[in-house]
């Protein structure tokens, strides 16, 4: 007994019989072809509605700790099927991008590996995409509709690869270039990721000499509990950009994944005019910084 390796596995059977006088038929061998476990490689990002000169492209992610040879795998959509070219390798926990040309690497980020080959056409009105290994086993599939996002030159990104692959697990890229080919998705769930959800000014002071409340709502979008989260609020006078208020507060309790907290600051209006409020949060081990300020 044991775990069979991906690919061709050769077996042999031998019969031992002491009185056997015809030994030429006592052994046989056979080959058993074994496919990859489901979701070893997943569909991770799709650019189905690019803006010229960019072409449609697809990103795959290797969820395993070993190199995966994608030779003769198939990418399928309602628009057809394309066989992946020989020698297409994705490293452990690595990404691979498939596109007809190199535009994806010049309009977003440097992509390595970038596999230049045809892929099936992807409908802007919604489509289904499937990935099969070289034995025809279905590794992953996803369906998308325009309401999921990914229109007008922005990609559709997978949020979490272990999660169910439905509409709740896909979102439009929030990256400044519109996509993240060959790198971690901008909407992916990270181990540690605290974010500012919003700054609430509904109770802020509106007249001279009054003191009101500015609230900063913080959410834990990471996979792990967030502890020792601090929030710094700074208020600037619009005319001279001079800091008129600055205070730092710690969130007194850990934030479980998807949990949120509202941190309140008392702000007094000591001069008339317009003000601009900025908030910044700090979390040790936070690896996504663009959502730490507002």
How would you describe what is shown here?
A six-stranded mixed beta sheet has the order 10-9-4-3-13-14. The protein has a four-stranded antiparallel beta sheet with strand order 7-6-11-12, with no helix packed on it. It has a three-stranded antiparallel beta sheet with strand order 15-16-19, with no helix packed on it. The N and C termini lie far apart (57 Å). The protein is mainly β and 294 residues long. The radius of gyration is 27 Å and the shape is elongated. The model has no long low-confidence stretch (mean pLDDT 90). It is 2% helix and 40% strand.
Summarize the structure in short.
The protein is mainly beta and 294 residues long.
Write the layout of secondary structure elements.
Blueprint: E1 7-14, E2 27-34, E3 41-47, E4 57-62, E5 68-69, E6 74-77, E7 80-83, E8 89-90, E9 95-99, H1 103-107, E10 114-116, E11 127-132, E12 138-144, E13 156-158, E14 170-172, E15 194-200, E16 211-220, E17 230-237, E18 243-250, E19 260-268, E20 275-282
Parallel strand pairs: 9-10
Antiparallel strand pairs: 1-2, 3-4, 3-13, 4-9, 5-8, 6-7, 6-11, 11-12, 13-14, 15-16, 16-19, 17-18, 17-20
Note the main attributes of this structure.
mainly beta, 4-stranded antiparallel beta sheet, 294 residues
> Approximately how much beta-strand content do the residues carry?
35-45%
Order of helices and strands: EEEEEEEEEHEEEEEEEEEEE
Mean pLDDT: 90
The strand count comes to 20
Number of helices: 1
Low-confidence stretches: none
Structural class: mainly beta
User: Helicity, in percent?
Assistant: under 10%
């Amino acid at each position: 007994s044991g775990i069979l390796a991906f690919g061709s596995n050769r077996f042999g059977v031998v019969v031992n019989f002491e009185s056997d006088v015809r030994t030429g038929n006592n052994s046989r061998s056979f080959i058993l072809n074994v496919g990859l476990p489901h979701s070893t490689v997943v569909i991770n990002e799709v650019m189905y509605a690019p803006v010229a000169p960019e072409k449609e492209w697809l990103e795959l992610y290797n969820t395993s700790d070993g190199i995966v040879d994608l030779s003769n795998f198939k990418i399928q959509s309602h628009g057809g099927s394309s066989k992946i070219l020989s020698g297409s390798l994705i490293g452990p926990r690595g990404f691979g991008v498939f596109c007809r040309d190199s535009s994806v690497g010049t309009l977003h980020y440097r992509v390595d590996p970038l596999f230049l080959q045809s892929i099936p056409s992807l409908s802007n009105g919604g489509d289904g995409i499937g990935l099969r290994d070289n034995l025809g086993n279905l590794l992953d599939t996803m369906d998308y509709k325009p309401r999921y996002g990914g229109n007008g030159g922005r990609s559709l990104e997978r949020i979490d690869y272990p999660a169910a692959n439905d509409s709740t697990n896909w979102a439009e890229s929030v990256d400044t270039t519109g996509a993240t080919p060959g790198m971690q998705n901008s909407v992916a769930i990270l181990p540690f990721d605290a974010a500012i959800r919003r700054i609430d000014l509904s109770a802020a002071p509106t007249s001279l000499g009054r003191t009101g409340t500015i609230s900063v709502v913080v959410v834990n979008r990471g996979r792990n509990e967030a502890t020792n989260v601090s929030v710094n609020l700074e208020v600037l006078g619009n005319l001279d950009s001079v800091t008129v208020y600055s205070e730092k507060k710690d969130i007194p309790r850990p934030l479980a994944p998807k949990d949120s907290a509202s941190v309140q600051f008392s702000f007094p209006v000591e001069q008339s005019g317009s003000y601009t409020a900025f908030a910044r949060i700090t979390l040790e081990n936070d690896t996504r910084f663009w959502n730490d300020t507002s």
